[in-house]
Amino acid sequence: MRSLFNRNSLTLSDRTDQAAGLRRLFSGGAHQRFVAVASNPHVACAGVLLERLTAAFAAQACHALVIDASESAPVPSVAVLEDPALGLEPLGERLSYVAARGLSQGLREVAGGAAQWLQRLAAAAPQCDVLLVHAPATEISRFFGGRALQPLLLAAEGDDSLTHALASLRLLAARHRCTQFDLLLGLPMTSPQAVRAVRHLGGWARSRLNLGLRHGVALDPARDAQEPALPPTLAQLAAALLEAHDEQEPGNWHPGGGDAARGAALPARN
Fold first, then answer.
1. Is residue 265 in a domain?
2. Organism's domain of life (predicted)?
3. 157, 188 in Cβ contact below 8 A?
4. Which residues on adjacent β-strands are paired with residue 33?
5. DSSP labels, 188-250
6. 143, 23, 3: which is closest to 86 by C-alpha?
7. Has residue 222 been placed in a domain?
């Protein structure tokens, strides 16, 4: 059984800097980045894709926290609703995990709801540089409370996964002022299906929603995990998701992407 995450990893200067502690408590940590990952029940390799993405963050010396509210995630205990820190689990030197399936629904009657809970979780884990919220689009909307987003979509081979990804993007674009999105595919990079998926999703989003596809990255879930070096396209995606932007949301909220580079559609990488 995995032990609960040890949150006593602050440096001595941090522990003795009362002002820094107060800033973390009320802002959730100015260095932290939030990334909305739209879950897709038709992507059997979603766990592998997220593992590879968090490895790319670790390669850039970042500690990732996965808040897993996907359809297949474990259901958290009731206590986690009151204290998010109770759900923290370490999975590696630079990786932590929180099971959160159905949690946003349980927080509907709580003041601040899921968005406030997410900020409290961030404050409880100041050592985490990037927080990935892996959840259905409707759940993402509850966690991010109408803030601007640049979501990351997951997809794989098969029309069902593409249809689901498009539906998620449509909902998020309508609710969160999206201007761009990223795509992570569970397919071999040289696969014709990967090229087709990137072109289909990118073209549909551009023509129907006026959204640009910034990064389209394909990973072979059966092969890439055995390679010692990260694919360059995955490293580029991770770096882009970590970028700080001049335009920030009020209240020190920093969802991945924000409104930066509005209208700029960068070419897909496949």
1. no
2. Bacteria
3. no
4. 130
5. -TT-HHHHHHHHHHHHHIIIII--EEEEEEE--TTTGGG-SSPPHHHHHHHHHHH---SS-BG
6. 3
7. yes
Q: What is the largest CA-CA distance in the chain?
A: 56
Find, among 181, 208, 186, the residue nearest to 265 by Cα.
Answer: 181
List, in order, residues 6 or more apart from 113 with CB less than 8 Å away: 104, 107, 142, 145
Q: If you write DSSP's letter for every residue of 63-84 in order, what string do you get?
A: -EEEEE-STTSPPPPTHHHH-G
Q: For the chain, count helices (H), then strands (E).
A: 10, 8
Q: Is residue 266 part of a domain?
A: no
In a domain, 247, yes or no: yes
CB atoms within 10 A of CB 65: 27
Question: Which tokens in the block code for residue 42?
Answer: 């038709």
pLDDT value at residue 249: 44
pLDDT in tens, 65-85: 999 999 999 999 989 988 999
CA–CA dist 162, 18 (Å, integer): 49
Rounded to the nearest 5°, which phi and psi values hold at 24? -65, -40
pTM value is: 0.79
Number of domains in the chain: 1
Task: Determine the Cα–Cα distance for residues 159 and 161; give it in Å rounded to an integer.
Answer: 5
Structural domain range at position 192: 17-252
Q: What is the CATH number of the domain that holds 232?
A: 3.40.50.300
pLDDT in tens, 179-211: 999 999 999 878 888 888 899 999 999 999 999
Per-residue burial over 1-13, b = 16 or more CB atoms within 10 Å of its CB, e = otherwise = eeeebeeeeeeee
